[in-house]
Amino acid sequence: MRIAGLQPVSLCDYPGKVAAVVFTQGCNLRCPFCHNGGLIPVEGQGLIPQEEVLNTLRGRSRLLDGVVISGGEPTLQPDLPAFIHQVRDLGLSVKLDTNGTRPEVIEALLANRLLDFIAMDVKAPFEKYPLLAGVDVPTTQIKASMGLVAASGVDHEFRTTFVRPLLADDDLEQIRRSLPPSSRHKVQDFIAPLALDPGLRLAG
Fold this sequence. Notes:
With about 200 residues, this protein is of the alpha/beta class. It has one domain: Aldolase class I (TIM Barrel). Helix content is about 30%, strand content about 20%. The chain has a seven-stranded mixed β-sheet with strand order 1-2-3-4-5-6-7. Strand 1 and strand 2 form a beta hairpin. It is globular and about 45 Å long.
């Protein structure tokens, strides 16, 4: 695992649980509103050895309920399943934050019952995805992941960052209509000063 950061405790990243947050290095999108631009390159600096992260989690396991694996995009990590096994061996539940671009990875994780919660980003209405993702994303992948997550029986939510210069209220309604009716939809605040695109930093 290429791990760029570890937040030892969070009360807001895993609904209903006290959790640590592990940030993986590398992302396959270039969202102009991204506030974690340093996590986008595959080759990051100052990576934390996996065993160091596991030792920290082990030492805090009695204080934690779970671990959030975020990014970057965690499903790009080839050893993600092995890392999750090690986290679960500590008695901790696992929440995955994902952009949904790798449905085959999500499917395998679900098939092996490795996830307890999934938060999947839905960036925009499908026709606007390239604008909000910063790259050309096959929306078939996003739709496949949405279906897998919704049908999994695993607790989950879909999330949209409301970037008002790029999205309108009608876009949010269109996103909601595209989601499975039984799934939660969370609208997140746009953190303008940290946006990857300098042109968005005065917006919000």
